[in-house]
């Protein structure tokens, strides 16, 4: 029977054996010293010694590899192992185990007293050496996706060819169709043509109950940037709520940034302003009291709700759940999570459990006899279907929706259904933990990279704008400081209307900057990733990644600020030599079309140099002045 062998102190009985071993060690040492002397002699008189040694001299060299092994066996056993090596029986990585194996193969020659023979490797031949790990390559684990993720409803990403005329989607109310036409929309983009009917279908039985009394499926939508995801939820939510009689918060849209929330609330306003529906924006741009006034009104017998649709950032939403008297989510029917992957990342703020808790007052809640009092949904049974209650349906949207089931699980989705423009379940992992190889890019977007040195990066940006004549450029850096310094430098250089956008500025100032950029008053907007997601500025021709994005998702969103809604656009990434390999591999895994290498020869930058040098010294004094002011 094979035994485990752990080398340990054997007790006083082993003392004699140890003394014997000590004698053996001395003999071995002497032998080694003798050989060293011989070797030294050989080096001193190589010709003679080689002749004298003849073939035996050469033979003596061979067992050296075997000697390096930790066995320290008898000369006989050494020779056996050397023979095994010659025959190529074992690889060098497996040497320790192999030497034991070889001894086992020839059968152990026992010394008197049943001990292993001199120099036999430690444990008995039949035993298993603990910690004797062999280096074997672990098989790659392929992600196993749940069926809804692995088999999504596929949607085309081509928003120029696969348009669907709005009259071909009869589920959309004629009033809304008229309104869409009034805003210049005559056809739905593919994602809209697929998602709008699906959401409307789930509210077909009226928004108070799901179809047939069942709870509707939650929907997840993964489609490229600029593919019209906003209207894909605005239209069905507005249409479903048009039937409401009493104003209650029935739709809540949560977004990661103030600017995005503002943009989405604008779109809601476009489609609700001729209806009784009211939209409130709660992002912290106004004071809490002002926002409270837009949400609830105090009456003689309690509070009156003033908003049907609330568009919010998560932090401010939780503030209102906690601090606004009369703000209730008991009638919430739609919870829309835009930029869903980003919102999952912000889950540590616990905004979702707070929303769900506020939406389900539960047993003993403040309205115990309300007809449609909601409880946290339980398992569907015959009894539970007898007493239908208003469902809370989640709608998730993103251009980079995670396929990580563990992350998605945090959202507590119910029988989810995925609409996707990407191929499901392919590709290896992204650096941030999400699976890559599945994000899709707008068809009109071309990707370039510019190999350059750190010092010449600002010059390359100036060259792109001034020499290649791009009139609306969005340039991303990885930090506020980088944005600010690049802004100061370009400003000092002159000839370009430039602004910076980052958390250095107040929300009001940021709003104004975005407006001016949209109006074309700013040619170059230098920004942190604050504008990377969702911001929809028409006619951005060029996106420059001044600092290469670290993550694939960041690249997808940054580049997606151009080539929106079927337009064309270009994304240029400035890469240092050390960044090239990793970045190109990351994009290849993302399924991005091949990046075009765009060389900017030094001669092209040469004419810009004199002004650039002057701008650099201006920058230096500006930075010093800023530091002085900070310290004062
Ligand atoms: N059916 C349509 N026809 C014409 N233009 C449209 C249509 N739907 C949306 N658009 C326009 O396309 C642009 C992009 O839409 P939207 O902002 O909804 O994209 P998105 O998919 O949400 O992008 P992102 O992922 O970057 O947030 C907007 O300017 C919008 O007005």
TrEMBL record:
Residues 57-70 have a biased composition (Basic residues). Residues 32-42 have a biased composition (Basic and acidic residues). Keywords: ATP-binding, Helicase, Hydrolase, Nucleotide-binding, RNA-binding. Its EC number is 3.6.4.13. Residues 32-127 are annotated as: Disordered. Residues 84-93 have a biased composition (Acidic residues). RNA helicase. It comes from the Eukaryota. It comes from Rousettus aegyptiacus. Residues 460-608 form the Helicase C-terminal domain. GO terms for molecular function: ATP binding; hydrolase activity; RNA binding; RNA helicase activity. It catalyses: ATP + H2O = ADP + phosphate + H(+). This is ATP-dependent RNA helicase. InterPro entries: DEAD/DEAH_box_helicase_dom, Helicase_ATP-bd, Helicase_C-like, P-loop_NTPase, RNA-helicase_DEAD-box_CS. Residues 210-419 form the Helicase ATP-binding domain.
